[in-house]
Amino acid sequence: MPNSSLTQQNHSSNETLLDASVHSVLIILYSIDLAGGTLGVIVMSHQLFRRKSQSVMTIIIINLLVLHTFLLLSIPFRLSYYILQEWKFGTFTCRLVSAIIYFHMYTTFSFYVAIIVIRLFQLEFKKCYTTTWVIAVWLLGALVIAPVFLSYYGTSKTYTSSHCFHFQQEIQELRMTIVNYCLVGILVAVCAVLTVIQLSVIYRLAVKYWPDINSHVEFRAQAKSFFFILVMLVCFMPHHVFRVYYIQNYHPDKDHKLLPYNEIFLALTTMCCLDMLYFAVPGRLLSFQQGYIGLS
After folding, report:
1. Counting beta carbons within 10 angstroms of the beta carbon of residue 93, is it exposed (0 to 12), middle (13 to 18) or buried (19 or more)?
2. In the predicted model, is pLDDT for residue 17 greater than 70?
3. How far out from the chain centre does Cα 152 lie?
4. Distance in angstroms (rounded) separating the CA atoms of residues 5 and 27
5. Count of H helices and E strands in the chain?
6. Residues whose CB falls within 8 Å of the CB of residue 108, separated by 6 or more in sequence, listed in order
7. For the G-protein coupled receptors family 1 profile domain, which residue ranges apply (predicted)?
8. Distance between the two ends of the chain, CA-based, in angstroms?
9. Contact status, residue 237 vs residue 1, Cβ threshold 8 Å
10. What is the pLDDT of the chain when averaged over all its residues?
């Protein structure tokens, strides 16, 4: 009996240390997001306001700014929870804040894909067409996906009001498992295809223009597009790859040891809001817009 008691105490102590370390990591990640993301949004908004450009890329970047702003507004709620270790804003707010991070991730992913595809295939769109499909993306998210998400996510089980973001029991439902697998499959497949195509294009241009590759606008444009692929690979891919392992091992994981790691990978997806710092460098936004002929 004493050995059993000692084992339980050690187990509890290890869990406490794990929770403390995970909370520290989450606080650091979200603090970086909040500070860097806010700075990027402010500087980029100032640059766009001064230039008053109406190009397709500018329209997409403006929408990314709006998306990042929504995410940044939700981060203080998460920081409050991880610092105080108690949720004080009600169940609906918890589900809303949780929904924002997923809405931001997949909508940002959609805009990234649009930028990469436009530049890869040198597509030209009239501003009215671009505005139309951007509005369609927002309406689909705001009027269809968000209401459905808020109506079902976190409502099928009973959760403690003082805790938040612990909706892991939802994975037990078959429909949620299917949805997760579909999202993982789509994102991984799209990232893989775009990465292969982008690298092949960059390699072809590098061979064509070597050794003065940096002096050619076409090569610089494709190299800058690869930045968005890197963001997707670094921020989005780890979460989705781990998600498969998490779903498959949720039932054996009775102590929920995988949950903290899932939260860290989810927090990593929000680091994409730092992308505006890349364009906030003086002259880089103008260079990005001019890199693609026919996009203004």
Report:
1. middle
2. no
3. 22
4. 33
5. 11, 0
6. 64, 67, 68, 272
7. 36-278
8. 76
9. no
10. 79
Q: Considering only residues 254 and 224, tell me which one the structure prediction assigns the higher pLDDT.
A: 224
Picking from 270, 101, 265, 106, the residue whose alpha carbon sits closest to that of residue 190 is 106
Non-local CB neighbours of 247 within 8 Å, separated by 6+ positions: 171, 177, 180, 181
Q: Give the separation between CA 91 and CA 155, rounded to whole angstroms.
A: 10
**For the whole model, what pTM was predicted?**
0.83
Structure tokens that stand for 282 in this block: 């003086």
The answer to whether the CB of 16 falls within 8 A of the CB of 10 is no
Mean per-residue pLDDT for 1-5?
47
For residue 161, pLDDT beyond 50: yes
Q: How far apart are CA 75 and CA 34, in angstroms?
A: 7
Burial of residue 40, with CB atoms counted within 10 A of its CB: 0-12 exposed, 13-18 middle, 19 or more buried: buried
Burial 111-128, CB ≥16 within 10 A → b, else e: bbbbbbebbeeeeebeee
Where does 19-155+167-290 sit in CATH, by number? Answer: 1.20.1070.10
Provide the residue ranges of all domains of the chain, joining segments of one domain with +: 19-155+167-290
Query: Contact 119/221 with Cβ under 8 angstroms?
Result: yes
Yes or no: say if 31 and 79 are a contact pair by the CB < 8 Å rule. yes
- pLDDT tens column, 39-77: 999 988 888 877 766 677 888 888 899 999 999 999 999
C-alpha torsion sign, points 25, 26, 28, 33 = positive
* Nearest C-alpha neighbor of 87 from the set 165, 163, 167, 166: 163
| CA 261/CA 239 separation, integer angstroms | 9
C-alpha 43/C-alpha 65 separation (Å) is 11
pLDDT tens digits, residue range 75-116?
A: 999 999 998 888 888 888 888 898 899 889 999 998 999 888
